[in-house]
Request: fold
Amino acid sequence: MNFTIQKALIAVADRYITTDVQVINGKIAAISPNLDVIGMVVDGQNKLLLPGFVNAHTHSSEMWQRGIMSMLPLELWLAELYDFAPLDTEKVYLSALGTAVETLLSGGTSVVDHLVLIPGQELETIATAVRAYREVGIRAFIAPLIQDQSLTAGIPSGESKINHEPYFRSTLQTLEIIEAAVQEFHRPEEGVNILVAPTGIQLCSDALFTGCIELSDRYHLCRHSHLLETKAQKKLAQEKYGCTAVEHLHRLGYLSHLTSLAHCVWLTDADIAILAETQSTVVHNPLSNLRLGSGIAPILKYRQAGVNVSFGCDGASSNDSQDLLEAIKIGSILHNITDTDYQHWITPQESVIMASLGGAKGLNIGDQLGSLTMGKQADLVLYDLNNLSLLPRTDPIGLLVLGRPSNVVDSAWVNGKQVIANGNFTTINLDQLRQELFDRSEWETSRKSPTVAQIESSYRTVMGL
Amino acid sequence: MNFTIQKALIAVADRYITTDVQVINGKIAAISPNLDVIGMVVDGQNKLLLPGFVNAHTHSSEMWQRGIMSMLPLELWLAELYDFAPLDTEKVYLSALGTAVETLLSGGTSVVDHLVLIPGQELETIATAVRAYREVGIRAFIAPLIQDQSLTAGIPSGESKINHEPYFRSTLQTLEIIEAAVQEFHRPEEGVNILVAPTGIQLCSDALFTGCIELSDRYHLCRHSHLLETKAQKKLAQEKYGCTAVEHLHRLGYLSHLTSLAHCVWLTDADIAILAETQSTVVHNPLSNLRLGSGIAPILKYRQAGVNVSFGCDGASSNDSQDLLEAIKIGSILHNITDTDYQHWITPQESVIMASLGGAKGLNIGDQLGSLTMGKQADLVLYDLNNLSLLPRTDPIGLLVLGRPSNVVDSAWVNGKQVIANGNFTTINLDQLRQELFDRSEWETSRKSPTVAQIESSYRTVMGL
Reply:
């Protein structure tokens, strides 16, 4: 579908101009004042046009436990999460819809879903997420979350030698599932992508990483993983490898321009140099890192080292929302307390570039997405600057990034297809989604996780608590 | 006006119950299931009832510069703020309305406005804010911001001796203005309070603090001030007093159960003990502290020492919103990275108590406000749990505090008077407010502050940058 946005504000260098934008066959065809109208006319007056952002790391099905998870560090939090995660594909479907909706309503046009798979229904889980994302119309990067070691292996053992239960599925079977998913669902030109995505060094063997590299090479797939989210994982890497996790992944060949790594809180300066050298991308999930007490990722250092950085919400059980503007705001201002020299602080204009072009680069499509550039895909968002949360009028991008905007997305397009118009979804029925989420849940009070009860004391000992 | 809320969810110890709540003559008269209907019926089904929160520190007129302020630390940021703050009373009126509206829409029923006064129109400024807050119907604590030293005195001088311009108004004149404001506007029973509020040790003489103590004693006024927001202020206190700012204020007699202190980022353990001993309240403004790079206030330490803590948004030029739920969320999870022992982390239930009862205690009205208790004033908020941002249903308070709720306030009452009904203001016309904010402002690009240019190099030298 073709359309012409008239008289929208766009940012150019250090100022704003009012301009028209033509979109033809899903691509930005022209950006200039007073263009001829092609296709539908969209009124851009008093609206800000930006490239869509990328929600560069989340786990959609965690939506079912948002608000209820105890205040725990990652390792114990994961135990609680899995104790209460009896998923079915209908729930996967609804939470993928919910994740896409909240991402789009906060300026995201792409989502990287590090998707938790239902054991024994792995391909069905992936098929369900694909269906949901196609329905909403968001650009989807589905990264099926895989591991080949059981949960307790992810906690450093300290002095003691512990034998862990074997994981229920073999490494080979897991890789076969991913390959089948690629063949069945990987359709980049239709906005559906499959990534290889071992959960991280804490629960994956070298064989799993190597198998993923091989799939990535063969099918040209992006690579995703968690990396050094917690201090415990830093300890664990030393126990497992006798070196840092980054050094180990580099030796395995996992790090590349195709690779995006969620969290990256506990890296050394030498690790940072490796990320820069390999052109890997850091996905910053500030809210999750705070909620789980993981720490502050050294984002200013990454930027100074030339490492590409993008933003993610992380799963809604560790955040507990999918509001990308919130992640961008906190992920920008949080770092001001890590460096007294304010000349290094991230400006709102830089935050927008990180969230859009940074996100696209992390998925190896920086040449096709992430900026208002002729010839790029029209993944666009138009913000209503008449909204109270964006008033009085000052710097539109400053208001958007540093304020607390709500209901500000007037229109959103993915690949030129309109997904939100006048603040409403054109693709799905939001009231129905709300009703289904309501009907399939109930208000709960505090729960007790049996696994936390079982592993807590050894965790406290190893972590010196 | 009397009313009965039927079948609302309320939190009781570690669970939720469905109950009715009767409000008679502005007070909570009964809380129990199946009460007789008195007055208007309010449908509380699928809604959460909480006591109203307190936005315990803000500067309303900063709303005019939100989104546009450069990324600078406090001392330079203040210089930019004042360079571009040509206020008039009409602007003061509109930004007070805007501040009240955003506070109410995020669960706040009280606001502490550390109000910037227009030079030469000090009483008119206060009268204007009083008028705005009475119109909206929020409970107002107006803390006229006073000082008796000029801006450059607030920056530590290091080795060099600097002579600062004298402040344009004498200490005595300033105190006379406050006394006149008290006589004219201080009407606690009508929801309008005046506080004594020297801006802080960085710009105030001992005589100003002492004069404020005297007014506080004579008229029974609460006391407010900024305290040790930045490392520069910590340095400055040592230069000025040869001791910490807290020790000095304690000697002056400023600290008491009537005193609330904004920020409190750079206190020593001995300082914290003084706050506890004097029953002073810390107002935590996490977003402003991040944005200005001030640091993380040691809130977990305050709680462990028994210091009362409440939440504030701070002025909208350093945040840049007045969304109290955002301040509560970030002000709760931020501290998880400061203490590896998760047993010290703030739970959502505790956050709600800090924001409501903690706020009331900080204003010396903990016995009249801040909890769902029979006999207390009916400052109440009813949240719509059917909102997408609060779904799926899990723990309602967890969703509210840790999520990113928007448009979730169904109803709000102040002193038993309904201010919001079905999500809409009953007291003012929001569209008109929006239009006036729009009309009196324009989109701006980056500005250059002449004062920043003047003082920046000496600031960088003193701070070792």
User: Anything to note?
Assistant: Chain B has a mean pLDDT of 96.
